[in-house]
Amino acid sequence: MALDLGFLVGKKTPPLVGLDISTSGVKLVELTETGKNEFRLERFATEPLPRGAVVDGNIENIDQVSEAVRRVWKKSGTRARLVAIGMPPASVITKKIILPGGLSEDELEVQVESEANQYIPFALDEVSLDFDVVGPAQNAPEDVEVLLAATRKEKVEDRVAVAEAAGLKPMVMDIESYAARAAIDRITAQLPKGGEGQIVALFQIGAQVTHFSVLLDGQTIYEREQPFGGNQLTQDIVRSYGLSFEEAEAKKKAGDLPDGYEQEMLRPFMENAALEVTRAMQFFFTSTPYTHIDQIFMAGGCAIIPGLVELVAERAKISTSVVSPFKGMQLAANVREKQLRAEAPAYLVACGLAMRRFD
């Protein structure tokens, strides 16, 4: 289930591109539909952000971020100016509530607003609020389960300002973890028996944060964020070799570092990453009734570090693979396959956002 934060909802008129704004950069994806739930990847592009432009999901420098958005849009070659943008999960409050069935849209809105007062620690006029009817309530079929989502208005306005300054028009605002789940649902459907009954753990290792979620039959049953990411390795490189952060990041990506780097820095970082993964799963087992995980998917920029997936699989004793959100999609003629293979795991959120075009 995907969720619009409705203050931006317009008709999802095609074409619409997914725009993922993270700490390290901006990613863009454009898809077209070739059949029911079948897609072709038309374009994908990424543009790095200067350090400090986005911190903890907050846009600190609108000019720098909008300039990066302008560049990524141009680089991609798309002509679509309508965009779906993600909000970091930490900045959105979500709550499932039960309401009487049979209410009109207006009556639902009134009920949701009165319920929202209990759960949101801000004045309602400072908040952008939306809701989505999930379906009949489990224990009372005459009632409906409604998902409520709220975020501070200024956080939305910053993202809107960035897109508009780059000449684009935001049409959909989604939660990044929901967008990632939309992309992952396509992949789990390709598992044996369509992934039915499979408990799937998804680790997205970003620049600053690792987002961990556990999915079962299309529902998120657990999620948490851990302060661990690729920037820690970059900082080690900065300290050891006296480089600027930007130089260290570029050399890390290009594999252009002195001989001792792999043993002294990369290997300990990978060990740490594997430890974070096993620790997160222990938290999951001790705080839920679940006792096993069937499959681990790794995503994010760090997922493609050679040997990391094998190390995680060895430590966790669970089948582990790097996930490409574009698996099973057709590729447009201009898509560079080699580049796509190297970068795909970092595009999970952008791909999920681009899929909103077809809701």
Task: Provide a descriptive summary of the structure in words.
The protein has 359 residues and is α/β, with parallel strands linked by helices. The chain is built from 10 helices and 16 strands. The chain starts with 15 loop residues before the first strand and ends in a 5-residue tail after the last helix. Mean pLDDT is 91; it is low at 6-12.
Question: Can you lay out the helices and strands and say which pair or pack?
Answer:
Layout (H helix, E strand, L loop, with lengths): L15 E6 L3 E11 L2 E11 L5 E2 L2 E2 L2 H15 L5 E6 L4 E9 L4 H15 L7 E10 L6 E10 H13 L3 E7 H13 L10 E7 L4 E7 L2 E8 L4 H11 L3 H10 L6 H27 L7 E5 L8 H9 L3 E3 L7 E2 L5 H7 L4 H7 L5
Parallel strand pairs: 1-6, 3-16, 6-10, 11-14, 14-15
Antiparallel strand pairs: 1-2, 2-3, 4-5, 7-9, 8-9, 11-12, 12-13
- The fraction of residues in strands falls at 25-35%
Distance between the termini: 10 Å
Structural class: alpha/beta
The CATH homologous superfamily of the domain at 191-323 is named: ATPase, nucleotide binding domain
What is the overall shape? globular
Which stretches are poorly predicted, pLDDT < 50 over at least 5 residues? 6-12
So how many helices? 10
Over the alpha carbons, how many angstroms does the gyration radius reach?
A: 21 Å
How much helix, percentage-wise, in residues? Answer: 25-40%
For the sheet with most strands, the description reads: 6 strands, mixed
Number of strands: 16
Pfam families: PilM_2
Organism: Noviherbaspirillum cavernae
Domain SHS2: 16-184
Protein name: Pilus assembly protein PilM
